[in-house]
Design goal:
This protein is mostly helical. It has helices at 2-8, 15-45, 49-76, 79-102, 108-130, 132-136, 142-171, 175-191, 210-223, 225-245, 248-254, 260-287, 290-310, 314-342, 348-376, 381-404. The radius of gyration is 21 Å and the shape is globular.
């Protein structure tokens, strides 16, 4: 057993990181259960298409509305306590939801309010949690640490959680939310075991108002060439990704001829590819520079859009999804590591929030573009748009991409764990 634990979470990462990882994996399983159970709950309460779509909007909007403020709080307050308070709030909301379901008193309006509250609390928890890893782990081990966290997200949130949530919902509407309540509560207990190194804010960086601190984080991001390029890359590639993936279910039905089960298997191919990415990530980053990993990843994403635009073969499309899933894990883990290494400790929350805005802003804009293109031109049009936009952007930033991973070469003192 000890050998397995050491292989998964080497002792050099520290006991604190092991508690953080356990909390992350536990919470991610609960969130994965909600990925399936949440929409099923709303759909069971109403057949109104607007209300069903509103549930999706309530999962996308909070990061855009509260992301920057969450970053300010993470840089001002005790980050461990922010995670605990936000997740404890989620557990309370879930407990109320469970009680209303058990007594058959839940309405669709209350369910939508609960989804909004849960997602909003998650914004604050996720922003603060993302700053804990560089505080607990030496910068040279951030690649390994982030790979473990992302592997848990991929496996538990995206691969295991949704089918478990659907199965529990089929057994009874209340059960997936009981399970999520227990798992989120367990996550709070696990993260409470962390002992973080003391951190001090520079004397000239004392709190001076939320607006001032938000501007400070934005200004630092814009002035740092590597982090600025990384944020811009994430924004643009989420626009192109969002355009294509917003109509993926229609693409699967109309272009590949897949039914609901087939579509589920098609998307699962991406998650399986992500697992393959977790297995090869350590060996890959020992042999290839992070800059070249990022270059190769963006080429793969660009060619993914092209391949899906031209193929009508289920097998080819499935193989493409598998490769894309591996890329998504590898590139995402690498970008997190690069940002954590480059950003000063007292700005981790705010710069991380800029990244969140880039991700969700790009997805929202891309979804709107993809829907319009598919409606007026055809279901493959968003994929052609994604290919062309990605190709142009890669060409423009080709030289900058290799510099991103090397902008943090100045050594930082390792944090004690």
């Amino acid at each position: 057993m000890g050998t397995i634990v050491e292989s998964l979470v080497p002792a050099r990462l520290g006991t604190g990181f092991r508690w953080l990882l356990a909390s992350s994996w536990t919470s991610n399983l609960g969130d994965g259960i909600a990925v399936a159970a949440g929409p099923l709950l709303v759909a069971s309460l109403t057949g109104n298409a607007f209300l069903v779509s509103l549930a999706a909007l309530l999962r996308w909007a909070p990061p855009l509305v509260f992301g920057l403020y969450a970053g300010v709080l993470s840089d001002r307050l005790d980050r461990r306590r922010i995670v605990m308070a936000a997740d404890a709030s989620r557990a309370v909301v879930l407990a109320v939801l469970v009680a209303l379901l058990a007594t058959d008193r839940l309405t669709v309006v209350v369910a939508l309010v609960a989804i909004g509250l849960l997602t909003t609390a998650e914004v604050f928890a996720d922003n603060a949690a993302a700053t804990l890893t560089p505080a607990l782990v030496h910068r040279d081990d951030l690649v390994v640490a982030n790979a473990r966290i992302q592997a848990g997200f991929l496996t538990l949130n995206q691969l295991v959680g949704p089918p478990v949530g659907a199965a529990l919902f089929a057994a009874g509407m209340v059960w997936p939310f009981v399970a999520e309540t227990v798992l989120v509560g367990a996550g709070v207990l696990l993260v409470s075991r962390l002992m973080l190194p003391a951190r001090t804010r520079p004397e000239d960086q004392r709190p001076a108002g939320v607006r001032h601190e938000v501007v400070e984080g934005l200004r630092w991001t814009v002035r740092h060439p590597a982090v600025r390029t990384l944020s811009l890359t994430i924004l643009i590639f989420n626009v192109t990704f969002g355009a294509a993936w917003s109509v993926l279910v229609l693409y699967a039905q109309q272009r590949l001829g897949l039914d609901a089960v087939g579509f589920g298997l098609f998307t699962t191919a991406g998650a399986v590819g992500g697992l393959a990415g977790t297995a090869m990530y350590g060996r890959l980053t020992r042999r290839v520079s992070l800059g070249n990993v990022m270059r190769a990843g963006l080429i793969i994403e660009t060619l993914t859009h092209l391949a899906l635009a031209v193929t009508t073969s289920v097998w080819v499309a499935g193989a493409v999804m598998f490769v894309f899933g591996a890329h998504a894990f590898i590139w995402g883990t690498t970008s997190i590591t690069v940002r954590q290494r480059a950003v000063p400790e007292h700005l981790q929350g705010r710069v991380g929030s800029v990244n969140t805005i880039s991700v969700f802003g790009g997805l929202v804009a891309g979804s709107a573009i993809g829907g319009a293109l598919a409606t007026h031109i055809g279901v493959t049009a968003p994929f052609w748009f994604a290919f062309a936009g990605s190709a142009v952007f890669v060409a423009l930033l080709w030289r900058e991409l290799t510099r991103i991973a090397h902008a943090d070469d100045a050594p930082h003192a390792p944090a004690e764990s």
